């Protein structure tokens, strides 16, 4: 089984390189003021201090993003703010957030000065009581208000439980869209466009998508020996009825942004040419 571990490690490096390229493209076209905000947001989620925005009084242990203190974002803000550097040294025994990903147009050819910041915040809901969960939601709402007032930037947070995502069960933040958009297409868009900001790497990024179920479980078992990874569910194919519903959704959205809808509809329609059960949504896996 050593070859599996070696392949996973190699693919982790491939993914990290891919993610760096996406981040560089995003930075290249993002105005400086909005780039400053993008760098600040994960820090504001990680800490909870009255000296920084989005402080939640008596919030307890709502703070902490898994391994954030070792990220490039943490190092960047620590060099600019001594107090932030001090906070980074505080131990976080039970981080509230397992991962932060950005989903959408940033880092793609559709990025523009008007692009929203849409973040998926991944948690383990079983480690939250109601008070902790509500406090985290309050902190995220405060960041949204801060971003709008100080930077004129629209920010959205979609709070997801990792275990629910495995079965394509999306949480409250996506309620309006889930009614219309097929759930598998939500996950498809996530895997196709996400930029990892901080936290744990989705297993999908390091495991081949064409494995049978038994072999896939073996790969997952080996990968999850490393806490760097998190299981958000695989995505091997999209049924034809889901694709058709996705196309109808884009037709409904077209009057508001016809170019964006055309691009998304074209991507969705491209899956029709594959047989239903063999329609593979390819990950980052490279066999060479």
UniProtKB/TrEMBL annotation:
Top-level EC class: lyase
Record has Acyltransferase as a keyword: no
Alphabetized InterPro entries for the sequence: Adenylate_cyclase_1, Adenylate_cyclase_1_N
Domain Adenylate cyclase class-I N-terminal: 9-204
Pfam family name, one: Adenyl_cycl_N
EC numbers for this chain: 4.6.1.1
Organism, as annotated: Desulfamplus magnetovallimortis
UniProt-listed PANTHER family: ADENYLATE CYCLASE
Protein name, as recorded: Adenylate cyclase
Protein's UniProt keywords contain Lyase: yes
Example GO molecular function: adenylate cyclase activity
Any one Gene Ontology BP term: cAMP biosynthetic process
Keywords: Lyase
């Amino acid at each position: 089984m050593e070859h599996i571990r070696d392949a996973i490690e190699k693919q982790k490096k491939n993914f990290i390189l891919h993610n760096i390229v996406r981040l560089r493209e995003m930075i290249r076209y993002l105005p400086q003021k909005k780039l400053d905000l993008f760098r600040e947001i994960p820090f504001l989620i990680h800490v909870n201090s009255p000296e920084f925005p989005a402080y939640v009084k008596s919030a307890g242990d709502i703070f902490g993003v898994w391994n954030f203190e070792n990220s490039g974002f943490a190092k960047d803000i620590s060099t600019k703010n001594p107090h932030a550097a001090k906070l980074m040294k505080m131990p976080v025994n039970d981080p509230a957030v397992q991962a932060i990903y950005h989903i959408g147009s940033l880092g793609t050819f559709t990025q523009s000065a008007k692009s929203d910041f849409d973040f998926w915040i991944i948690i383990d809901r079983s480690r939250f009581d109601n008070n902790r969960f509500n406090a985290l939601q309050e902190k995220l709402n405060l960041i949204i208000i801060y971003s709008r007032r100080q930077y004129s930037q629209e920010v959205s947070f979609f709070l997801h439980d990792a275990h629910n995502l495995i079965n394509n069960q999306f949480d409250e933040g996506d309620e309006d869209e889930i009614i219309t958009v097929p759930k598998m297409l939500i996950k498809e868009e996530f895997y196709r466009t996400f930029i990892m900001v901080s936290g744990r790497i989705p297993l999908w990024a390091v495991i081949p998508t064409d494995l049978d179920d038994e072999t896939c479980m073996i790969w997952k078992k080996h990968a999850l020996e490393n806490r760097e990874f998190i299981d958000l569910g695989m995505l091997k194919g999209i049924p034809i009825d889901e694709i058709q519903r996705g196309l109808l959704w884009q037709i409904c959205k077209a009057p508001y942004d016809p170019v964006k809808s055309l691009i998304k509809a074209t991507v969705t329609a491209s899956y029709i040419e594959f047989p239903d059960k063999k329609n593979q949504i390819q990950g980052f896996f490279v066999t060479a």
